What we know:
CATH superfamily of the largest domain: Nucleic acid-binding proteins
CATH class of the largest domain: Mainly Beta
Structural class: alpha+beta
Largest sheet: 7 strands, mixed
InterPro entries: NA-bd_OB-fold (IPR012340)
Number of helices: 11
Strand content: 25-35%
Shape: globular
Distance between the termini: 82 Å
Helix content: 10-25%
Mean pLDDT: 82
Number of domains: 3
Amino acid sequence: xxxxxxxxxxxxxxxxxxxxxxxxxxxxxxxxxxxxxxxxxxxxxxxxxxxxxxxxxxxxxxxxxxxxxxxxxxxxxxxxxxxxxxxxxxxxxxxxxxxxxxxxxxxxxxxxxxxxxxxxxxxxxxxxxxxxxxxxxxxxxxxxxxxxxxxxxxxxxxxxxxxxxxxxxxxxxxxxxxxxxxxxxxxxxxxxxxxxxxxxxxxxxxxxxxxxxxxxxxxxxxxxxxxxxxxxxxxxxxxxxxxxxxxxxxxxxxxxxxxxxxxxxxxxxxxxxxxxxxxxxxxxxxxxxxxxxxxxxxxxxxxxxxxxxxxxxxxxxxxxxxxxxxxxxxxxxxxxxxxxxxxxxxxxxxxxxxxxxxxxxxxxxxxxxxxxxxxxxxxxxxxxxxxxxxxxxxxxxxxxxxxxxxxxxxxxxxxxxxxxxxxxxxxxxxxxxxxxxxxxxxxxxxxxxxxxxxxxxxx
Length: 459
């Protein structure tokens, strides 16, 4: 058998050397909705170095004969520069597997079946690209502080968890679509996980991590070569923070505050933090419109034309998304505060889809509230929301006021194939501008805005 080289010997545009490798991952990446899905392999050589292999779309028959975790002698490939965006490994080359390339099956070699290049929390800021074009994806070794089941937001399935590494700094990770379903029944509090190929993003200025189609998760003792790190991480707890989004019902109930206490704080120190309080819906502003009708493609507002709705931007007829956007005031015995209920939060409260109310039950006047909304006025709930000093706080979750803690239920989800397309997070829908003379459904006069109250207090 011919002598094999190393991944580190490869130079772009120069002749390749035969490589003895193990195939440790297969994944597909779609850079944009208009691009075709591209198949990649992650290969590891005898020296423990990894490289991405881009597989020609014409080689579907070859792919059916190349198996995960098997060893091969790879010849006849082409050496190119690394991918400009979305690289799984920090390597100076990418292998192109075309028609001349061949995978020759060989005997088992002492090559690892996992490959990680873990990044510490302190490096994540430097990996963030505000353009959204992530150059190098991130591997993260962390401990789960809390984890959700799979849920749907804006018609996208997701799972959220809050994790921390040896820095003890908590950070939220979102698993999208098939990645969420694949690992949902394996994730639990206190587990240490090795999670690969994450994208560093920001939401409201706070660092977050998101899955990509190349993401894999390995749990606890199944992580090869990191036993000491796992042991030390298991002994740690996360630093306290109110920044991070997903919280269990127990977390929310055990961290209640009052509206007055929130408004008494310096807005700069609590901006974009999350709080929970027991309060009542005091009033609902109907003239600020209680639902929106948006185009599914450009997300701009649809407008009426004849008997139907059309988008002013899209030439092809598009389906509309009908969603709640309810501006209200909540109050407790300390103060009151304006809030906005977007679609997921209001659907949770009413237990009825907005489209059903508007289309099926024909409550289609934007400024006339349906009875289901009017009945909310005066009801006491536990509201979990993001506080914003410059915008109206948005309700994230609503619970009934009872204090019997319910155990978290694990979702029984069948193991599915890893996702084949990359999904990025969608931003929160813009708020409806305030009307100069809003029609209110209330029992009391409205109070001042939280921003004005805090300004008066500071003066």
